[in-house]
Amino acid sequence: MIQLTENAVKQIKRFREDENMPEGGLRIAVVGGGCSGLSYKLEFQKEPAATDKVFEQAGVKIFVDPKSFLYVKGLTLDYSGGLNGTGFTFSNPNASKSCGCGTSFSV
């Protein structure tokens, strides 16, 4: 399961409108790279792949491929707009450590 905070839902809907993509969903993927070895990748897609796990919360669809799901199962996606920076933050119970900026992790 992937959880979205209320702030994340609002921002995803806003970004989806900005991208002119009223349908579709947000793909959350894990790719190699970053300070800690693995990084998150977010992008909008019109349709999920046949093997994707699909989650929906408050009108927002999330697509996750099976390999990435092993790393993000239980993830909570938030959006912060505070003084220390703006952007999505990832609370991942599978990560054993993460970098200072919070965009890469290791398991």
What does this protein structure show overall?
Helices cover 19% and strands 44% of the residues. It is α+β, with helices and mostly antiparallel strands and 107 residues long. It has one domain (3-94): Sandwich (Hypothetical Protein Aq_1857, Chain: A). The strands form two sheets. Strands 4-5-2-3-9-8 form a six-stranded mixed β-sheet. It has a three-stranded mixed β-sheet with strand order 1-6-7. The longest helix has 13 residues, at 6-18. The two termini are 18 Å apart. The relative contact order is 0.25. The model has no long low-confidence stretch (mean pLDDT 86).
Largest sheet: 6 strands, mixed
CA gyration radius, whole angstroms:
13 Å
What's the CATH architecture name? Answer: Sandwich
Number of helices: 2
Ends apart, CA distance between termini: 18 Å
Question: What is the β-strand count?
Answer: 9
Shape assignment: globular
CATH first level: which class? Mainly Beta
Class inferred from helices and paired strands? alpha+beta
CATH superfamily: HesB-like domain
pLDDT averaged over residues: 86
Q: What spatial order of strands do you see in the largest sheet?
A: 4-5-2-3-9-8
| Strand/helix succession | EHEEEEHEEEE
| Total domains | 1
Strand content: 35-45%
Give unreliable regions as ranges.
Answer: none
Which range best describes the helical content: under 10%, 10-25%, 25-40%, 40-55%, 55-70% or over 70%? 10-25%
Q: In CATH terms, what is the fold-level topology? A: Hypothetical Protein Aq_1857, Chain: A
